[in-house]
Amino acid sequence: MEIDLRQLSRTMAYALRHQPASFGLILDDEGWVSVDLLVSALRQHRSAWQQLHVSDIEQVMALPGKKRYELRAGRIRAYYGHSIQQRMRRETAVPPARLFHGTTPAAYKQICQSGLLPMGRQYVHLSEDRETALQVARRRTSQPVILVVAALDAHQAGIQFYLGNDSVWLADTIPPLYLTRQ
């Protein structure tokens, strides 16, 4: 029986980002867990996945689109550990001059006051291109608001940025001073 890789990816996200304990997983301080333990937990989670192998996990990671997982030295983690209590540590990096953030009109009013905040996530998520930010905003609204982040200026003023993956940047917060509505 062929494994539905998209369903597997969604379940991996749930296990690695939201509810590792419900899968019997304990993530380390940086969100890593043994890939063998993840495979074992996934096999127990769904009877159709009894023949699941690490190669299936690797196929999920090779799917087109946003890269969500990192596999290194027999361990795996989600790039973003949204609701796990421990904060995933990241190395700081110098961002490009501009980054983008897509939001809703209602959230934009609050952002004008307080800036960009993680809002239940571990970091603020920023896109390298306007189109990705627009796509993110459209998940929540039919009237997206796109913000341009003066990322390099903010970095030079002491705000730390972290590379999330190929096209996503992370920050702790972004004050309104560095945001412009596009």
UniProtKB/TrEMBL annotation:
Presence of keyword RNA-binding: no
Signal peptide: none
Pfam families per record: PTS_2-RNA
EC supergroup of this enzyme: transferase
E.C. number(s) listed in UniProt: 2.7.1.-
Stored InterPro entries: Ptrans_KptA/Tpt1 (IPR002745), RNA_2'-PTrans_C (IPR042081), RNA_2'-PTrans_KptA (IPR022928), RNA_2'-PTrans_N (IPR042080)
The UniProt record lists the keyword Chloroplast: no
This protein's UniProt keywords: NAD, Transferase
Recorded family membership: Belongs to the KptA/TPT1 family.
Function: Removes the 2'-phosphate from RNA via an intermediate in which the phosphate is ADP-ribosylated by NAD followed by a presumed transesterification to release the RNA and generate ADP-ribose 1''-2''-cyclic phosphate (APPR>P). May function as an ADP-ribosylase.
Protein name: Probable RNA 2'-phosphotransferase
Species name: Dictyobacter formicarum
